[in-house]
Amino acid sequence: MSAACLARLARCSGPYVGRHGIFQTAVVPHSVQKDINPQFTIVQRPIYSPSEQRQSGTRFDPDSSGHPTTWDSFGIWDNRIDEPILLPSSIRYGKLIPKVSLSRVGHASLIGQRKENEDRFQVSEMTDNILYFAVFDGHGGPEAADYCEKYMEAFIKDLVAKESNLELVLSKAFLEVDKALSKNLNISSDVPGITAGTTATVALLRDGIELVVASVGDSRAMLCRKGKALKLTVDHTPERKDEKERIKRSGGFITWNSLGQPNVNGRLAMTRSIGDFDLRNMGVIAEPETKRISLHHVHDAFLVLTTDGINFIMNSQEICNVINQCNDPREAAQRISEQAAQYGTEDNSTIIIVPFGAWGKFKNSDSSFSFSRSFVSSGRFA
């Protein structure tokens, strides 16, 4: 649909247009006298969504299967969650963009076998056109994760008012939050907090189409595109050659624990984090890696943010497949958390699932699960 067509819709509709408000216009000849000056009338026929029943044999059922033509056939999207269209964004980008409702977002956080849950997460509408999603996995105490949960969004919101580049906004926000946390811990009477740290994986969705992700540590962001897991983040661990070299150049060292996992100075399993100020001079930094991607709602089913309580035990494609079998993002979030617990995770496990236009489209994705599955293939770095 062209931007001109969308503009015409805007003049007769509010900011959101439901699918049933879109019509297909056709010019049909209507003879008044035989073979003399045929007149034309304008006929409006509603386009039916996949959820509506149509009689077989119509032009909406070209293969006579009894199933109506999906929205994909019209070049839009095939969505099992009926959301209105964001008209301003659709006009701006020249394509139909569905509204992502926070009420549809699924999330869950389980304590696992730990004494307390140091994971934190947040889902909110930060501005009129930007949605905010974040997971924080605290370690060495909850102070750093608590601070990020309370203040990260505010830092980002202040920066968005001055800067339009969301990747730059997130990079600055991470560093400013880290700096503010350092001052807060020095002022606070809780001296042990100096060893507290947290991973941070933050996603911003602007205009329902521009997705920007920033991350430090080993929490992850993943997009399900055409039924396949597309990783948006890369873990910051000492196993990465570039990360290990920075640690060594800064005077730090790498050791391996009894499970064969590398640690910075024998203490920290990641090379980037917010907090962990006792390792700042050893190469551990708070600067995130960022990624920007344009969504294609006809192919993109959902965004997933997870902490390593899930990542350690389930690989990205496995998470994608399990979610694809669920009817609702909230049900999917609960199922993933419980699945990780059944597979033996001991850590806190947190997940956020944000549905997009192709939610439910890939239910037939190959998925076979077994409690006797190989844990090697589902390890931390899968």
Explain what you see.
The chain contains eight helices and 18 strands. The protein has 382 residues and is of the alpha+beta class. The chain folds into two domains: 19-83, no CATH class; 102-355, PPM-type phosphatase domain (Phosphatase 2c, domain 1). The strands form five sheets. Strands 6, 7, 8, 9, 10, 15 and 16 form a seven-stranded antiparallel beta sheet that branches. Strands 5-18-17-11-12 form a five-stranded antiparallel beta sheet. The longest helix is centred in the middle third of the chain and has 22 residues, at 166-187. It is globular, with a radius of gyration of 25 Å. It starts with a helix and ends in a 27-residue tail after the last strand. Mean pLDDT is 79; it is low at 19-81 and 367-382.
How is the secondary structure organized here?
Layout: H1 3-11, E1 16-17, E2 23-30, E3 39-46, E4 85-86, H2 87-93, E5 106-110, E6 119-125, E7 130-139, H3 143-160, H4 166-187, E8 197-198, E9 200-206, E10 210-216, E11 220-225, E12 228-231, H5 241-249, E13 254-256, E14 262-264, E15 274-275, E16 289-294, E17 300-306, H6 308-311, H7 316-324, H8 329-342, E18 349-355
Antiparallel strand pairs: 1-4, 2-3, 5-18, 6-7, 7-8, 7-9, 8-15, 9-10, 10-16, 11-12, 11-17, 13-14, 17-18
Helix pairs in contact: 1-2, 3-4, 7-8
Strand and helix order:
HEEEEHEEEHHEEEEEHEEEEEHHHE
Shape from CA axes?
Answer: globular
The percentage helix is 10-25%
| Number of helices, counting only DSSP H or I runs of 4 residues or more | 8
Strand tally: 18
Specify the CATH class of the largest domain. Answer: Alpha Beta
CATH homologous superfamily classification of the largest domain: PPM-type phosphatase domain
Distance between the termini: 40 Å
Q: How can the largest sheet be summarized?
A: 7 strands, antiparallel
**Assigned CATH architecture of the largest domain:** 4-Layer Sandwich
Question: What integer is the average pLDDT?
Answer: 79
Low-confidence residue ranges: 19-81, 367-382
Number of domains: 2
CATH fold description of the largest domain: Phosphatase 2c, domain 1
User: What's the alpha carbon Rg, rounded to whole Å?
Assistant: 25 Å
What structural category characterises the helix and strand content?
Answer: alpha+beta
Beta strand %: 25-35%
